[in-house]
Amino acid sequence: MRSAYSVETVRAAERELMARLPEGALMQRAAAGLAAACAQVLGRTAGRVYGSRVVLLVGSGDNGGDALYAGARLAKRGAGVTAVLTAPEKAHSGGLAALRRAGGREATTAEALASRLIDAADLVVDGIVGIGGHGGLRGSAAPLAERAAAAGAAVIAVDLPSGVEADTGEVRGPAVRADLTVTFGTHKAALLIDPAREHAGAVRLVDIGLDPWLPERPELEALQHADVARLLPRPGAESDKYRRGVVGIAAGSTRYPGAAVLAVAGALRGGAGAVRYAGPAGDAVLARYPETLVSDGGPRRAGRVQAWVVGPGAGDDADTVAEVLDVAGEADVPVLIDADGLRLADPDVVRSRTAPTLLTPHAGEAAALLGVDRAEVESARLAAARELAERYRATVLLKGATTLVAAPSGRDGTAPVRVNPTGTPWLATAGSGDVLSGLAGSLLASGLSARDAGSVGAYLHGLAARRGAVGAPLAAQDIASAVPDAWRDIASGS
Ligand SMILES: NC(=O)C1=CN([C@@H]2O[C@H](COP(=O)(O)OP(=O)(O)OC[C@H]3O[C@@H](n4cnc5c(N)ncnc54)[C@H](OP(=O)(O)O)[C@@H]3O)[C@@H](O)[C@H]2O)[C@@H](O)CC1
Ligand SMILES: Nc1ncnc2c1ncn2[C@@H]1O[C@H](COP(=O)(O)OP(=O)(O)O)[C@@H](O)[C@H]1O
Ligand SMILES: [K+]
């Protein structure tokens, strides 16, 4: 599991750790890890550290201190290191002294912008701000970040790309774009959630000994192969198709029969023992998937299921959405609501459900439910997912460049929001969301909680798209077809 903690929590843990270490030891650990990463990158870009040209962008806090100490280490190895000080009188004094002792130079922002210093560098180290930053870059820091982006040099961000919001992943103004971010102690939300994540580039975590002082429950978590492998449903010796779980799909309409086929395609690969289909696209579903149990009588007469999926391609069929919520309410089984179903479902009915509910909006659907613009959801995904989960008292899987799964708060607080690490822009293809709804619904029917079904479904879905789209676009059906390959990779740990 990869975890991210809030700035407040990181600072509290750092205080505990620092109290037990000699003065400055923590910053030395950070700087050593940073310098090692810089040396590796210089090895690739300039051939070696000796004789390479390194520019440090140094702000007024400890983030700049990390950069200065790392620069001193590189200067000792023969790199030509120049520190550009955005606030010379506030720059970290110990770090600056170390750099001077090692033969490093200094420049003001004006000098750097008036010369070719940054353009000619092999490596730019962004130590403008870290977890102490708020808002987009201010003052002279903004043009420095712009210049670094335009230069050909590799950019390494210290702890975070400067200018992003550490706790939310928002980017409210000018911010550094890095090729690599070297972060200390733990990940932060900004390194996992777009749009900030995109500014971070690759991320390397340096262990500074913080773990024992971090609480058990992080703000965010990203499942890895081993976590998903533990959650994948597996039939036992005593299993039969009913015990493995039956998922009911109420999707598609005469106008959108394809949504039904795609949701069934996902559901057949999600671990349930059987897939029931109740809706007007039965013929299309059977033509493609004869193993589907098709019912003509609507959800109420479809037979028992352990979870329902409703909404994909539903058009304006509010009656079916209401019927599924009724039937699922009476049987007290989980429901996944997607696409049109999100608009058509009665919020009061959703809120008052006792069995789990999983809502799977994309940003546009989430924006409509929240009454805000789509751009607002895309710029602040974490807040949107959390807000929807509370308003609907439901687990929310917010799709998009970063997919998040947020559960509503319960008796013992709020579970960490899950961030899906397997997403790929290849997923942005029509009908891909329908496949995900069937897949996650199937996982719900086989007994996973809404939070696990959503996050395991998104993980498989993303991995399947990566598996299927090797150098060429793929269609939604191909994603469904590649789910068994993704499943095997996870189960075998490859
Ligand atoms: N604590 C530890 O044990 C360890 C900490 N470590 C390191 O320390 C970092 C945190 O250091 P920190 O607390 O000094 O804050 P930091 O991120 O340098 O920024 C503060 C300065 O930035 C300024 N500023 C803010 N926003 C801005 C903006 N938008 N645009 C421009 N400027 C802006 C702000 O100025 P002000 O708002 O006061 O004018 C303030 O002076 C952390 O990320 C990690 O790298 C590691 O060494 C490991 C051990
Ligand atoms: N840029 C992107 N990067 C990663 N995943 C994306 C991106 N854009 C869309 N996706 C994923 O593609 C799927 C699209 O689902 P959705 O918007 O419901 O499409 P549709 O309605 O056509 O089925 C979701 O799983 C979403 O997370
Ligand atoms: K930084």
TrEMBL record:
UniProt-listed CDD domains: YXKO-related (cd01171)
Domain of life: Bacteria
Sites where the protein binds AMP: K399, G400, A401, T402, T403, G433
Cofactor(s) needed by this chain: K(+); Mg(2+)
Enzyme Commission number(s) of this protein: 4.2.1.136, 5.1.99.6
HAMAP family assigned: NADHX_dehydratase, NADHX_epimerase
Record-given protein name: Bifunctional NAD(P)H-hydrate repair enzyme
Gene giving rise to this polypeptide: nnrD
